Records
---
Amino acid sequence: MISWGMDVVEVIPSPDQYAFTFGGVAPLRTVRPGTALRLWSDDAFSGALTSATDLSGDKVDLSRVNPQTGPFHVEGAEPGDTLVLHFVAMEPARDWGASAVMPFFGGLTSTERTAMLQEPLADTTWIYELDRARNTVEFVAHHSDLRLALPVAPMLGTVGVAPAGGEVRSSLVPDAFGGNMDTPQMRPGTTCYLRVNVPGALFSLGDGHYRQGEGEACGTAVEGAMTTTVVVELLKGADSLGGPAWPRLEDDASLVTVGSSRPLEDAWRIAQRELVRWVGELHGLHPLDAYQLLSQVTEAPIANVVDVNYSSVVKVRTDLLPHAPAYGGVHAELRARAATLL
């Protein structure tokens, strides 16, 4: 851990410091609101897949999947407050990423929860080489000679806080505390709002993706180690101002809510309800008026259909709504502060 000055800190955890749950882990360190962190996180396989000949069944330790960097104890954070994380930058920390079709895991195969009689899909690994000059990763087909350069679009699959009620949840799970939501909306320029459930919030992040399609259909993105620069803030007593029961995201163009559950339509319902509440709070709308308005203007991309809970996103463009800054305009303030770090 190397300090870059009073309020900017770099953290590179050793493998024995990785967190694999939300809750139940002692804090890696304490940070003050207003601190900028530069955090290294390992890929979802803990670096186990390095070659297209590596097979997940042989190489991946399922007890060490989705390693998180953290948790971080935020000074002054108490239950009912809102933790604010503004993502300044996400930079690939290796020159390759890995993806895999893993037996009985993914959206187009039988699983333990969707039990069928057919054999598992073939255990297969793809390595995506990073071209930093072109800012691309290369897809290389196994069964033909097709190669495609795809634009890098960094995101974090997993961002969350310790759950309420003393629960300990796997870093593979998304829920009200955040977690493994796998939404491409969790990208540089986004501000994430999470309800604080325990003293200090105890937030962690990881599961860097060099790119991912909506839904993460096969169960894995282009998984890669990531260096993430994030500014940490805290809104005290934000429940009275409409604190988030579920994760909320804001970028320069949109307000976004995330719901996680099974079946998928329940995840969608959670996200829709939360956006109705948020827009109603911001604009003083009756719930039925907010419901009607949003029914005509929202987009609803799927985040993941492969995790223990599925995640659905609902978003609305802010240029379609009257000007009403969320949480006192903290996103715009953090964007301005972030510009000094780039």
---
Amino acid sequence: MTYAELRAALRHEHLPLAYCDLDLLAANARSLIERAGSLPIRLASKSIRCRDILRRVQAMSPVFQGILCYSAAEAAHLAADAFKDLVVAYPTVDRRDLDLACTAIAGGAEICLMVDDPQQLPFLSEAATRAGVTLPVAIDLDMSSTLPGLHFGVRRSPVAGVEAAVALADAVAGTPHLRLDGLMGYEAQLAGLQDLVPGQRLKSAAVRALKRRSQPEVFARRAAVVAAIKARGHELRFVNGGGTGSLEQTRTDPAVTELAAGSGLYGPTLFDGYDSFRPQPAAGFALPIVRRPIANIYTCFGGGYIASGSPGRDRQPTPYLPAGATLLANEGCGEVQTPVNYAGPEILALGDPIFFRHAKAGELCEHFNELVLLAGAAVVGRAPTYRGDGRSFV
């Protein structure tokens, strides 16, 4: 949509607001399906954080199977709304959250929790015992690469190879009320690292080279771990891998049975700089212009929705429409106001919106109670976010 169309569609809405363009969301979903090849996609809820959007995407295609949650309490919340096949991607030892998940399992929910350390197992076993259930668990495998002078990847799981993975699988099998259900090997350095960033030609080339070097190593590690666990007599219902940025690569690994993706549905700015794909900007937010200190500066209310990760300018929201609007380098996005530089052809007045794109996908939903749903340049509905559900899981 153009600026004029988007402004007209939201003319009577209260600002600030967050929105989702359902037409662009569907286009992004089709792109993920094409890029996944023959493998199913488990939706990463941390990048979506809205039950309505999760359900809409799952209804688009049988390729979207199951949810990759980020919190045990969140999984229980989704299970209460009839979501199935919920895998929690991050370990927890919190008694309350474990009890919520195990109580949901006792009521028929399909929830699998993540482990990467034998010391986590007693916490899970005790919760499963209290609920009288057998708790499915999955092993989180480290998929980073150690190169000369460089750790290429993220610091997550301590399970870095076959020996540790088999030992943990044995420990799970030997722990009362637990059973091994799956394995997750998320190659973050392939899936979540931009490799074609404008103005960063040399860095982008270096990242692409590092990705080419890392991929065969970590894929071989994941395949070896899967083979060793199975040879030990353990069963794996699923082997999860990849993310929005690596679907084409991860689908070629025969050890992987399913992919994960979420950010590619909303299309935030940190996914603009990839060589192999470019998602549509399906989600964003609108801030109202509340003052005009000089002719070409329009100050908006709100906007300080800074993304997590290593601090930098790329973590700030980006003015999207009208085209040509930019942040002020010495102010950026503020706690309660954001000045924007604009000298283009659009006539802007007090109360008019300026539209922004956020840097990371699901974190936008932590700032708004709902997403205003758009289709065909018109408002067609509203969807509560997790915040609108009255829930905060992290």
